[in-house]
């Protein structure tokens, strides 16, 4: 009873506290680090008395508290209560007077012998011996090159404080962060953290304050002495000294010729950014890209990258931005300072000065008679593009192709390729578009396409000069009309005319223009001579072609 009256502890009262009481009421699932003596920490707190009256709060000041733990810079109770905390951990601390402000207190703020109650949340922990912490989250299987000092990088990032509070993000701005590495344009920790990255790689980079914004912080978003966490995706990088990088994916075993400046080339391509984003494709348009190379019609990097390609080659061309679209980019699909990757498949190329390329596959022995212009020929052919795409074939029809050479009935290149051939000879012809179907192409033939023909000459008939339907092997009869007028009635109808011409051919005295339809040739001859179209030829109407040509010369004179 006396002890109670004198103020001794009542039954059940534990008495004065000997040490800090710690209640770890929230512990994060992941705790990578605990505060140790000598660590630098940042935290928020509310300080109250037992009755709940608040005497201090970092929240009210709008600034966290930063300091070194366990070295006597804090009251002893707080020094002890903060040790072992994780980032984002929350604790209730009860600090007895002898571990707080003791019997003196703090004038006007904390009375003597006051027990203090703190609600603390740990926000940051670091040490002066800390180093950059880099964790690779994902990395592409293919990585030919990594970031070095002086490289220009484009990357996306999310930036947070160590407690997860976001302070910045490139994603929210809708564009990458673009800068040089190792030249002082970035905080030291980011300069170091980007080194060795591959395009497409993702990293988590934890930067201690002394490699970030240090004691000053940055604006209102990064407090002083804050560790920073960056989640980085490297989109692409290059060096201003870079040239075009070539990778030969597939080169045909037979490559007789390589493209040079001035050649006109047709190729398919997929264009991607370094992170794999497709920005353009000729395949999606189902049409090749056609252009001259080395003449400035395309970006400089592609002008260089297509030099030396073979027909059928597949090549990867990696182009730095200073040889592509530079700092401004192009449209809404190619960002500024973007590295471009083109996967190219060369369909064909030619030079405007190219002739027909002729390769004789087979030539019969004893070949004395060869084709000339105006000859009538029969031949088989297969026509394809240089990439092997089949276009046409005479074998799809019942009989060979028939044509009079030099009569503008076939493309110029094919006509040239059929000259000087023997019956039975086989050739491969490569026909450039200016001797084929030109820039416009034809039905089933793309514009500016180089064509490949496999031809076999089946037969040939000697032709007649241009403009003639029939020629005499010697001098024509002096009394031609009398001989042609078989019934001597003074007029030559179509039947008599046809009989006479056929007789001359049969006797070897002359020959018709070669044709698959001789009757039509004779009918055309009769129509030319029957000048008044009355169905018969009179003496005044009948004239030799050579005489007609001579009369025209006199008229001109």
UniProtKB/TrEMBL annotation:
Residues forming coiled coils: none
Catalytic activity: [protein]-peptidylproline (omega=180) = [protein]-peptidylproline (omega=0)
GO CC, any one term: endoplasmic reticulum
EF-hand domain boundaries: 479-507, 517-552
PROSITE patterns for this protein: EF_HAND_1 (PS00018), EF_HAND_2 (PS50222), FKBP_PPIASE (PS50059)
UniProt xrefs under Gene3D superfamilies: 3.10.50.40, EF-hand
Gene that encodes the chain: Fkbp10
Highest taxon in the source lineage: Eukaryota
Sequence ranges assigned to domain PPIase FKBP-type in this UniProt record: 38-126, 150-238, 262-350, 374-461
Alphabetically ordered keywords of this record: Calcium, Endoplasmic reticulum, Glycoprotein, Isomerase, Metal-binding, Repeat, Rotamase, Signal
Protein name: peptidylprolyl isomerase
Annotated compartments: Endoplasmic reticulum
SUPFAM superfamilies in UniProt: EF-hand (SSF47473), FKBP-like (SSF54534)
Annotated EC: 5.2.1.8
InterPro entries (alphabetical): EF-hand-dom_pair, EF_Hand_1_Ca_BS, EF_hand_dom, FKBP-like_isomerase, PPIase_dom_sf, PPIase_FKBP_dom
Function: PPIases accelerate the folding of proteins during protein synthesis.
Positions of the UniProt region annotated as Disordered: 526-557
One protein family per Pfam: FKBP_C
MF terms in GO: calcium ion binding; peptidyl-prolyl cis-trans isomerase activity
């Amino acid at each position: 009873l006396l002890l109670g009256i004198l103020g001794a502890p009542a039954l059940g009262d534990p008495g004065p506290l000997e040490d800090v009481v710690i209640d770890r009421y929230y512990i994060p699932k992941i705790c990578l680090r605990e505060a140790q003596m000598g660590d630098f920490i940042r935290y928020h707190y509310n300080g109250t008395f037992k009755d709940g009256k608040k005497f201090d709060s970092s929240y009210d000041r709008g600034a966290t508290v930063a300091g070194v733990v366990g070295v006597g810079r804090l009251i002893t109770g707080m020094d002890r209560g903060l040790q072992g905390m994780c980032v984002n951990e929350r604790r209730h601390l009860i600090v007895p007077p002898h571990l707080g402000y003791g019997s003196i207190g703090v004038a006007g703020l904390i009375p003597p012998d006051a027990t203090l109650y703190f609600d603390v949340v740990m926000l940051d922990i670091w040490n002066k011996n800390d180093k950059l912490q880099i964790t690779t989250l994902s990395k592409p299987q293919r990585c030919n090159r990594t970031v070095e000092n002086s490289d220009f990088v484009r990357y996306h990032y999310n930036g947070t404080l160590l407690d997860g509070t976001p302070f910045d993000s490139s994603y929210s701005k809708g564009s990458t962060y673009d800068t040089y590495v190792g030249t002082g344009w970035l905080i030291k920790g980011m300069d170091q953290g980007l080194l060795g990255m591959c395009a497409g790689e993702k990293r988590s980079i934890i930067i201690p304050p002394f490699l970030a914004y240090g004691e000053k912080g940055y604006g209102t978003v990064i407090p002083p002495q804050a560790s920073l966490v960056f989640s980085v995706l490297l989109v692409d990088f290059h060096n201003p000294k870079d040239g075009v990088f070539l990778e030969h994916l597939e080169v045909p075993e037979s490559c007789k010729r390589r493209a040079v400046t001035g050649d006109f080339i047709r190729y398919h391509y997929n264009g991607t950014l370094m992170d794999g984003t497709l920005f353009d494709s000729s395949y999606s348009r189902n049409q090749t890209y056609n252009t001259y190379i080395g003449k400035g019609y395309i970006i400089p990097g592609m002008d260089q990258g297509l030099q030396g390609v073979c027909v059928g080659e597949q090549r990867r061309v990696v182009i730095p931005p200073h040889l592509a679209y530079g700092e401004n980019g192009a449209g809404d699909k190619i960002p500024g300072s973007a590295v471009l990757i083109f996967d190219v498949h060369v369909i064909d190329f030619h030079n405007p000065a190219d002739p027909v390329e002729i390769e004789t596959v087979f030539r019969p022995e004893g070949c004395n008679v060869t084709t000339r212009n105006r000859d009538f020929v029969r031949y088989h052919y297969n026509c394809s593009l240089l990439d092997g795409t089949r276009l046409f074939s005479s074998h799809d029809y019942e009989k060979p192709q028939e044509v009079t050479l030099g009569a503008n009935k076939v493309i110029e290149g094919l006509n040239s390729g059929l000259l000087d051939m023997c019956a039975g000879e086989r050739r491969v012809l490569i026909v450039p578009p200016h001797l084929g179907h030109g820039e416009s192409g034809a039905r089933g033939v793309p514009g500016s396409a180089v064509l490949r023909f496999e031809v076999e000459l089946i037969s040939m008939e000697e032709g007649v000069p241009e403009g003639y339907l029939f020629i005499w092997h010697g001098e024509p009869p002096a009394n031609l009309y009398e001989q042609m007028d078989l019934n001597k009635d003074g007029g030559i109808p179509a039947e008599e005319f046809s009989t006479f011409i056929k007789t001359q051919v049969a006797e070897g005295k002359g020959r018709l223009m070669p044709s698959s339809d001789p009757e039509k040739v004779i009918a055309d001859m009769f129509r030319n001579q029957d000048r008044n179209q009355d169905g018969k030829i009179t003496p005044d109407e009948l004239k030799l072609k050579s005489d007609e040509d001579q009369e025209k010369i006199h008229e001109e004179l």
